[in-house]
Amino acid sequence: MTTRSTFSKKGETTDVDISSTTIRHYESRDNSDVLRMFTQCHIDLIIPAFRRALKQPSNISLLLVCGTVAYVITQSVMAVMLVMAVLAFVIYYACKMVYIDFIELMLNTEMADIEEHFLRPPGSCFWVAEANGKVIATAGLKKTYEKPQTCKLTRVFVDPHYRRSGLGRKMMQEVLGFIEHNGYKTCVLDTTVLQVAAINLYKKMGFRACGQISFPGNTCVIFLSQVYLLKFERHF
Question: Which helix (H) or strand (E) holds 135?
Answer without folding.
Answer: strand 134-144
